[in-house]
Amino acid sequence: MKKSIILYLILSIVFIMNARAQNNSKTYFTTGGEFIFSFASIDNKGDEGGNVMRFNAFLNLQGMLNHDFNNTLGIFTGLAIRNVGFIYNNPETGLKKKYRTYNIGIPVGFKLGAMNKTHLYAGYEIEFPTNYKEKTFHNERKDDKFNVWFTSRVPTIYNTVFVGIQFRYGINLKFKYYLTNFFNQSYTEVNNDGITEQPFKDIDVRIFYVSLNINLFRGAHFSYSKEELKYKY
Q: Where do the structural domains in the chain lie, given as residue ranges?
């Protein structure tokens, strides 16, 4: 059921993007990658330490459908594939855990400022986790690793908010915060001793990150009208 809903949303967004971009000169499609420096606010049964910065640049792809009402105001939506996670390190026990999910995101936001130069943007994005991966290290030695598709270890959706700035030559900085706990605290499993437990019951993790994007909202223009040239220069 989850797979069908996500596939339907993807196909719907792609269809709308193509239709809008072809029918309106003020509507255009842009793409970009994302280099993510992520952190997490961790509350593990009252223990709030142990977070380590996580960097990743693999499979963070975004496509945006932009509509500019004028030279200073625009809106956008789109589709993204994003690698999001965090690292938990407990130096007292020598335990390190790495968690990540591949998410499909659908953002909705607005842009304010000079569309062809520097402008601010902000919005909301819903993300659907698809693949979950977990690694366990003891004293820097890997003990366990596994990944699973569409697991109930994490929520069905993540609610997120973001704000950013795009500079004149297409360099883009974004801050994003996950309003939803990374884990599903109600998740239940049977351990090796046959005991049913809830491993994430008392763990609250809120991820936030800063990312570097290139040309995320910058359209490709090969010809300009007089008005566009006047605005641009």
A: 2-232
